[in-house]
Design brief:
The protein is of the alpha/beta class and 412 residues long. The chain folds into two domains: 230 residues, Spore Coat Polysaccharide Biosynthesis Protein SpsA, Chain A, CATH 3.90.550.10; 162 residues, 2-C-methyl-D-erythritol 2,4-cyclodiphosphate synthase (60s Ribosomal Protein L30, Chain: A), CATH 3.30.1330. The protein is built from twelve helices and 17 strands. The chain has a seven-stranded mixed β-sheet, with helices on both faces. A four-stranded mixed β-sheet has the order 12-17-15-16. A two-stranded antiparallel sheet has the order 2-3. A hairpin with a 5-residue loop joins β8 and β9. The two termini are 39 Å apart.
Length: 412
Amino acid sequence: MTDNSCIALIVAAGRGSRFAPPEGDGGSPGAPKQYRALGGMAVLRRAALPFLQHPKVSAVRVVIHADDHALYDDAMAGLDLLPPVHGGEARQDSVRLGLESLAGQTPAAVLIHDAARPFVDAAIIDRSLAALARYPGAIAAVPLADSLKRGANKQDGADIVSAAVEREGLWRAQTPQAFRYADILAAHRKVAAAENMGYDRGFTDDAAVMEQAGGTVGLVLGSEDNFKITTEADLARAERQLLASLGDIRTGFGVDVHAFGPAGEKDHVTLCGLKMPSPRGLIGHSDADVGLHAITDALLACIGDGDIGSHFPPSDPQWKGADSAVFLRHAVKLVKARGGVIAHLDVTVLCELPKVSPHREAMRARIAEIAGLSIGRVSVKATTTEKLGFLGRGEGIAAQAIATVRLPADAF
């Protein structure tokens, strides 16, 4: 290659039939796996970031399902990407359509990557591109370490070992898969034309397409960390791996108090993102949600970025009556911008009324939704002050919150 231009193509048009997302995981319920939340960020976004940040990658394009524009826009907001293109019926079709969409830009190389692999690193990208000096294609892969056995099924339904399989020379293919652009586009076109003449499809990756078209594909070392999220258990493993990679653990504390106003002025209070009936409302410039305010301050404390008043001054009229979810989302965004992951949020509400316990689970779900977390990472508790002080006299509501955030060691 004489031209060093390279475009990364992220394939995200699949539906993930083996993946059954539960409700309330911090992503979109029922969404394909590439849009599920991983550490408060969509899997697809995490898969794309290493390419966006790599100096040898000039642009990134994502191939999406035609029904997923809203999910894509939400997951990739703010990133400098080429406009997405629609995929096809099978992965092979999606890649070909993505390659065709780059024809006007004619990059020297293309990196094709699965959206469900969020842990590719710069070294793998470097090795993949370097191999194109020798071969028209190269794939990241990991040599097999485990012993292999071929199984046989007996008549009683039991599986038995029928033979050992030699593992020498066997590799587990990963992505990215790197190709000289003109060569892989020609290979996909050739294979697609052959299939239209009655040939069976069934290529499991783009290396197989290149091989079928007569091209040579090199192998470069991948990583055990660069695994593909296929099942719910894989997503749980990814969460553990992500948290383990962030060694700087921060804890922040937040407190907020608001007084009740005169009876009759408001018929509700807003608490932890929920509107609850009340004969008196809370006085505040925004919606006076002490729970979300305390959590917001706790998150800002984790990154040393002031308090809620410095970001949303009560003197600014635009925040009058504002939904406090805006404040919490802002704090979450700041944590993410520093490469952080929110590990846990814990809030305690102190009041005589209203009763929190009937609404606890709804509060947890609402906080999780706003912060992009699984509900298991949110705790809501409540207590009274045994009729002592201004809270005991029913003059207001207070909240205390603790946030735990994991950050990269070099974040500050």
